[in-house]
């Protein structure tokens, strides 16, 4: 609640411009089909996909505090939204919101570019996430009927199959499309891509292994269902999964951004060659400290001027020569000498003739 009030604060302090930018981007994400998708829109929406537990707990947040405050805890609406089927449905709706936004962003990009690949295929990835949320909701709702025999719940196995399919889909997309790895033209960067930024390849290989493992960490949830002894720790385990997903997204961000800079894989810019390596500053000729203390540099109409004191202690303004003018002054005598030499050589030939 504090974060919501902080974002909506209209007063001109606490990073007002940044808060306005964030709210604007969140609005564009929520209205994904109606706005052109730029890099910041898709990037922020992908971060939201790793915060699904936060969305899942929105319903629990309001139910918990309304119950503690005794404002509407005894009303029929509170009992309806905070228990049973309706609770499962609300939690599932909040859970699938980030993937829903990304799905429509992909559809919008297909509409703008007319490219089925990768945009419709990417939309299919988020559609698989929606199916996982739906089957999980059916599994949880049916648990009320199979309370004593949860393993007999048919939606449990459907949820496992959909989760396996979705995790494999996402894992392949992460490595091949988002990170650009397993490129056939990788050359000496085996299993990676032709161009890499980070100096040691081991960083990439470790990240590949971690991404594969963390994409399937949800399988621990399956063992919890088969072993009721861990049921009381389900909330702690769920919270741990959320932290693991944030860590996975943290790693994902580095290599996704690197791939975007090197290959323009998302085609979010018209120019491909934008270096992300630090470049040394251009070294410019400067006056000595003594000259800087004696002279005062001015600028008039974009032309640098220097105050020079003459023998009568009066000041006059003279234009400082540009680098091009200094170069011309240096090269002119050389050209003049060469011209004179050529002229003398021609005179000698004429005299010999």
Task: Give the SSE map.
Layout lengths: L1 H7 L7 H15 L8 H11 L2 H5 L1 H12 L6 H6 L2 H30 L2 H27 L11 H25 L22 H15 L3 H8 L7 H30 L25 H6 L2 E4 L2 E7 L5 E5 L3 H30 L1
Antiparallel strand pairs: 1-2, 2-3
Can you describe what's shown?
The chain has a domain at 25-263. The chain is built from 14 helices and 3 strands. The protein has helices spanning 2-8, 16-30, 39-49, 52-56, 58-69, 76-81, 84-113, 116-142, 154-178, 201-215, 219-226, 234-263, 289-294, 323-352, and strands at 297-300, 303-309, 315-319. A 3-stranded antiparallel beta sheet has the order 1-2-3, with no helix packed on it. A hairpin with a 5-residue loop joins β2 and β3. α7 runs antiparallel to α8. The longest helix has 30 residues, at 84-113. It starts with a helix and ends with a helix.
Summarize the structure.
It is built from 14 helices and three strands. The termini are far apart. By secondary structure, the chain is mainly α.
**Alpha-beta classification:** mainly alpha
Strand content: under 5%
Task: State the helicity in percent bands.
Answer: 55-70%
Q: What characteristic shape results from the CA principal axes?
A: globular
Keywords: Membrane, Transmembrane, Transmembrane helix
GO molecular function, one term: inositol hexakisphosphate binding
Protein name: EXS domain-containing protein
Organism: Adineta ricciae
Keyword list:
353 residues, mainly alpha, three-stranded antiparallel beta sheet, 64% helix, disordered C terminus
């Amino acid at each position: 609640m504090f974060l919501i009030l902080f974002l909506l604060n209209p007063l001109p302090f606490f990073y007002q411009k940044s808060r306005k930018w964030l709210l604007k981007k969140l609005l564009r994400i929520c209205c994904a089909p109606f706005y052109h998708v730029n890099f910041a829109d898709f990037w922020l929406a992908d971060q939201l996909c790793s915060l699904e537990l936060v969305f899942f707990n929105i319903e629990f947040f309001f139910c918990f505090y309304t119950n503690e405050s005794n404002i509407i805890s005894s009303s029929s609406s509170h009992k309806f939204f905070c228990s049973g089927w309706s609770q499962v449905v609300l939690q599932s709706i909040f859970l699938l919101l980030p993937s829903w936004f990304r799905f429509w962003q992909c559809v919008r990009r297909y509409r703008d570019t007319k490219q089925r690949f990768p945009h419709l295929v990417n939309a299919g990835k988020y559609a698989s996430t929606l199916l996982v949320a739906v089957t999980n909701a059916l599994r949880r709702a049916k648990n009320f009927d199979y309370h004593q025999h949860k393993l007999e719940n048919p939606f449990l196995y459907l949820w496992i199959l959909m989760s396996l399919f979705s995790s494999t889909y996402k894992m392949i997309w992460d490595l091949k499309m988002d990170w650009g790895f397993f490129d056939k033209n990788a050359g000496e960067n085996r299993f990676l891509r032709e161009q890499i930024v980070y100096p040691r390849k081991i960083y990439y290989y470790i990240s590949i292994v971690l991404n594969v493992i963390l994409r399937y960490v949800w399988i621990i949830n399956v063992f919890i269902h088969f072993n009721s002894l861990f049921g009381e720790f389900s909330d702690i385990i769920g919270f741990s999964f959320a932290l693991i997903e944030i860590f996975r997204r943290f790693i994902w961000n580095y290599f996704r951004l690197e791939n975007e800079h090197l290959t323009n894989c998302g085609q979010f810019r018209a120019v491909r060659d934008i270096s992300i390596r630090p470049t040394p500053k251009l070294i410019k000729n400067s006056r000595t400290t003594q000259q800087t203390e004696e002279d005062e540099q001015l600028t008039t109409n974009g032309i640098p001027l220097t105050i020079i004191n003459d023998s009568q202690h009066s000041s006059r303004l003279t234009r400082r020569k540009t680098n091009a003018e200094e170069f011309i002054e240096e090269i002119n005598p050389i050209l003049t000498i060469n011209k004179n030499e050529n002229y003398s050589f021609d005179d000698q030939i004429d005299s010999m003739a």
